[in-house]
Amino acid sequence: AQSVTQLGSHVSVSEGALVLLRCNYSSSVPPYLFWYVQYPNQGLQLLLKYTSAATLVKGINGFEAEFKKSETSFHLTKPSAHMSDAAEYFCAVSGSGDSWGKLQFGAGTQVVVTP
Amino acid sequence: GAVVSQHPSRVICKSGTSVKIECRSLDFQATTMFWYRQFPKQSLMLMATSNEGSKATYEQGVEKDKFLINHASLTLSTLTVTSAHPEDSSFYICSAGQGAVLAFFGQGTRLTVV
After folding, report:
1. Tens digits of per-residue pLDDT, B53-111?
2. Residue of A nearest to B49 (CA)
3. Which side of chain A, N or C, has fewer Cβ within a 10 Å radius?
4. Do the Cβ atoms of B46 and A102 come within 8 Å?
5. B11 touches chain A (CB under 8 A)
6. Do B105 and A104 make contact, defined as CB atoms within 8 angstroms?
7. pLDDT in tens, A28-86
8. Which pLDDT does position A98 carry in this prediction?
């Protein structure tokens, strides 16, 4: 079975500061990992994904994440926060075998950006 | 990129009535779609896997007779909430994959049962 844990349900950052959202995973097989962003009353938008290729993954809107197998982590970062980055962020892991394509989501991290 | 369209985006219904939510893959064929439910301030929970031409697979604890899923074509899956009650009020989101590793999400449907 796969699962993800997001550390910190709320993160507050100043505009221009580093954004760091933490995600740790548990998986019995090599995982596929995802970060999604959700704005209020909207669906999810894919930021980036790890699919066993390069461990440093670059996504949209200046976000990137690094897969670290030794730490079972897939933390999301952005060097400089913008006001438009205020949203809910979800880390997810894809299932395997019969669960292929199903996503297990973390609890989410609400990002607040202050001027 | 691939687009998944969900309709309606918002619906209010009376207790005891049924509501149908549509999920369409607009530019690709999806043999499998997934339905998630999201309560306020919470994460998404997988409800069921919708399989084109066969019965849906429901997650443990999800009532299949209350949440009817039909996947009649390669581009359309529907979720019908039958005899809705206020506790069914939630945000419902569908997803479809293009290939095995990508999941594109619909815009979501905010259901309010009064």
Report:
1. 888 999 999 999 999 999 888 899 999 999 999 999 999 999 987 665 567 889 999 99
2. A102
3. C
4. yes
5. no
6. no
7. 777 889 999 999 888 889 999 998 778 999 999 999 999 999 999 999 999 999 999 99
8. 67
Token pair 């849906």 in the structure block, residue: B56
Closest Cα in chain B to A94: B101
Q: Which residues of B touch A41 (CB under 8 A)?
A: 9-10, 91, 108, 110
Distance from CA of A105 to the nearest CA of B (A): 6
Strand (E) positions, chain B? 4-7, 10-13, 19-25, 32-38, 44-51, 57-58, 67-73, 76-81, 90-96, 104-105, 109-113
Amino acid, single-letter form, for residue A62 = G
